[in-house]
Structures are given as structure tokens and as C-alpha cells.
Amino acid sequence: MKGLFKTEIANAFMYYKVIRGKVMKKVLMITYDFPPFVTVGAIRPLKFAKYLPKFGWQPIILTVNHPGPFTYKLNYRFMQNDIKKIKIYRSLEFPLIWISKGLRIFGINSKWFFIPDPRYGWFFSSVFLGKKIIKKEKIDIIYATSPPPVALLVGVFLKKSCNIPLIIDYRDLWTGNPFVSYPTKFHFNLERKMERWVLKHAEIISVVNDNMKQKLLRSFTFLDDSKVVVIPNGYDPEDFRKVNPKKFSKFTILYAGSIYGRRVRYFKLLLETVNELIQEGSVLMEDFQLIFVGYLAKAARKILNRIHLPNVYYLGVRNHEETIRFMLGADVLLLIPGTSETLTSKIFEYLAAQKFILNISDGNGQASRFIENMKAGKTVNSLTLRETLHKILTFKDTRVTVNYEELNKFSKYSLTKLLASKLELIYSRSLKR
What we know:
By secondary structure, this protein is an alpha/beta fold.
């Protein structure tokens, strides 16, 4: 009883010092994607880690030593200030991802063999190293971000082993991801059970938009509405202040990102419409150019080669700094959401670039409503694309009146403040246990 009383006094004193700003609390951030290798998914945890110390939290990163073949090395100079003060631990991965890539070449769904994903080879070394980190660094809270979902499994195992609160973050849904296919109903149900187990062990679940939240609540009815919080993707104003725009000699429409899956249909529609306008003489080819920066799936590259417009350029994957330079130099930024539920991370950087956004979709999605509310561009579908594109290329009127006070709510600083408030809530609860 005496020992318990001493513990309560110590906890109270610790909590007092935290409130007074004397102690930096620590959060272990489990993320497969992190610099110096980066995918789009790495930006979210990186920027959280950058700004968390401003709110009293020191991030400790647990990531992979050698990421899979689908990642690209970033421009280190551009992000060195973001990561130079962050403590990073790297665990080894058994390279199952290469087997998965080989299966894909032969048209075999890797989920026949790898559950929940081919990066499961990262699990055991991460749990082993994670336990050491928690003990050495005296971690207060665990944060795990997905995809890949194996990161969430690492988070739950560490929570159970070390009795530390857990917050999980969905950049994309797990079993609710429309881009993921399962070979059988058995495989889907197995992963759904794994996801249910993960969700039951999390104190808080963060998602990037309200549609994802509602889908989670419908799929897992045991979840309480207050347990699932929306922390959107956003933009870092500092990224835009330290680069110079790319100077183009022609009126430029730019797409930054990946074209695959459902996006290919709209990609084809765009190129066919541009080709028609040129062939009939409605617009002059030498007056403009289309530039695609990012990854084009095989189906998209075939369409590009077949239509073959001389004023359309595919530049491949570029680092983050170059991509922002292209955004700032373009006249129109092209958006093709993957699904109606998706509010992609690049839409916030598009807004920060202060350019007209041309959104090609069915017009009923979250991105459409967001662009309309922000007064940042126009959404078109297969029936209205031709008319709108003709007006843009003829009159070159791409003025926008973005609500920048509203946009500031999506700065990485503001969003990290929201995350920090959830960390504080979980931390205060843990002190009272």
C-alpha cells in the first residue's frame, strides 16, 4: 500500500512537470515508410515527427532498414532540417516483397501467400527492437501508421508486451481499401478478424477523412464514434517557401502523383479529349503542354504511347522538392481521385501552390466538395471535360480565390497540434490507471 502511494505521488509529480513543460514525453512512431527512402505515405509521419516537439512530444522512429523495391530515395538536402533532430531506429526485413513482385509478374495475387501483406518479413525484428527501444527510451505512447498493416500488428504486440497505450493511424484503410483484392472470402475474413483484434487494442484510431471514419464505424460496430478521430493529410508551408518555381515556356497543365487502377479511365479520357480538340483545330498544340510527374501503371503507359501527343510529357517519379517546383510553375494542376471517398494528400499541396485545380471525377466525391468549398478550381466529368478544357486552353483564365484562412487549418503544424492533443488525452488517462 505504501509503495502504491509512492507511485501515485510520483505520477502526480511527473504529470505536474509535464504540464509545466519541464519534461518532454516520448512517442514511439512505427512506420515502414520513412526517409531517406520515401513514398507519399512517408510524408505524413515525417511531418508529424517534425512538429511534435513543439507540443511537448519527442518522436522516436522505428522503421525499416532497407525498404522494398517500390520506394524512391528523396532529395536529402530538401528534408534534412526535418529529420536531423529525430532519433531513428531501423530494423531488418526479410525480403518477402521481392517474392511478391515476382508473383505479380505472373498475375498471381500475393495475398494467397502473404497475410496481411508481403512486408510481414519486417514484423519479428521490429517487435524485438521495439521492446528494446521502449525500455531504453522510456516510451510513453506507441503510434503505428498503416499501410502496411503489419505496422499495426507490431504496435499491438508492443502494447501488450510493454503495457503502453497505442494510437493507430490509417493513411489508407486495411480491409476496407478498394484498391486491394482478396483471392478468396476466407482470406478477406481472416484479415478482417486481424483488423478487429488490432482495433480493440487501440486507445484512439486516427483516419485521414470522414468517409474513412464512417466506413470503419459501419464495418466494426463495437467502435465508439469518439474513439475514431479525423486528422487529415495536409501540407507543410515551409516546403513551399524554400523552393523556386519551375519556369515553363508554355501554358502548362501538370499532374503530380500515380496513375493506376480506377484513375487510368480518366487518364484515357483526358488524352482522348485533348487529341480531339487538337485534331479539329479548336486549340493549337504549340500553345500548351501536359506534364505527368509520378508513377504511371503499365496500362496508362500503353494509352500514352498509343495516343502519342507531342505536347504530352511523362517525366517519371521525381523527388518531393522537384515535384513542388513543378507545381509552383504550372498554370493548372490536374487531380484524378482514385475513388469518390478519397481526399488525396496532394490536394492540400495543390492548394498550397495557389493554382487552379481541374478535378476529373464523377463529381460526387469528397475531393469535389472540398475544391468547391475552397473555391480552388472546378470538377468535371466525362460530359463536361471537353467544354471546360477548351475554355481553359483558349482563354487561359485560371484565377482562383482560395480561402487561405480555411487552408491554414490543414497545415502540418495545425494537424500535428491536433494529434498532440490526442496523445495528451491518452497520456493523462494512463497516469490515472
